[in-house]
């Protein structure tokens, strides 16, 4: 079957959320005269995302966009650290996730891949987050698709199958590109093609992210240029 | 309230569906050695869209994407003209709506407007149609939103309000840009800003499309450059 479209995981795969969020938190601390271990705060913030999302996936919470899950966790962490700021300041800080910087190869690699394939996001981030991020960072998506549109967070199969359906392609004509084996396994189980892209610095230096087994996915790439090379783009 | 985002009607407002569909039908006729009044065929094809959509809006049909409504009408028209072609050829011809050419000012005007505002589609066309069209024509959308995402065709208020909600802006921070007064009236009733763009050739030379009353909408523009001038973009 011909490959027609590429769907990209975003946090960690396209953008370096860690460095970006730490920089935003550090600037926030400086503005408010607060010192803290902002790298650990960023990890704790991100770590709140999976359990909150799983409550939505299990039906314990109604559909809740990622901005609101992020905000809930942020308020918990600020309260825990006895940091008091206005609601507007919390919103502004929460939008740090709209202002993440791409990995150095992301924009140029996507421009290459876009010449040959339809390229879309397939992220748990909400549409406004992904759109604001793309506009700021120059990510040249053909369209912006999100768990929010399918009302199912990844790794629910409805997210992968919904992406193929709305693009009007067969699952096998769509490939998920991600730095996370669990995401790719779920995409493979839904019938999509799979490309693992190594992002060894996602969690900072010296912390090795989960790696796939050899041959587990269709493609293994060091970055988006390497992926474009393998796909003839 | 600050204007933050512009949502564009597409068929007739951004692209010249009439000339494009007539050209596709003419080429189809030439391939199959069929002569017909293709301009009238195009009008009849387009004319089938509102009643079919209204059956979905009224709940007589379940949600059906525009590609499938277009295809149903096309099959009726081909049958009525005793034209017999394969299912693949019908699909290929039906995708004429994915290959519409922009008005001469559309791409450059959108590039200007995009510098200052978030720009999105808000069309009854389905996501794959709009995405394929944008990729072919170079329409630089920040994201691709559609009635398909909100499961409500315009002029249902849910389409306009759903667009504001998913962009995380207030209705008054969003402006609909359209060449059709009825679309703009529904957007205004939902609380959006409104910009009428005159597209006098939408239905071909010598057929004047419906015009708005003086002062009925927030802005009145001759084309997208004139709109950009008025919005300071």
From TrEMBL, chains A, B:
Record keywords, A-Z: Hydrolase
One MF term in the entry's GO annotations: hydrolase activity, acting on acid halide bonds, in C-halide compounds
Pfam families hit by this protein: Hydrolase (PF00702)
InterPro entries, A to Z: 2-HAD, HAD-like_sf, HAD-SF_hydro_IA, HAD_sf, S-2-haloacid_dehalogenase
CDD domains xref list: HAD_L2-DEX (cd02588)
Xref: NCBIfam families: HAD-SF-IA-v2, HAD_type_II
Protein known as: Haloacid dehalogenase
Protein's organism: Mycolicibacterium duvalii
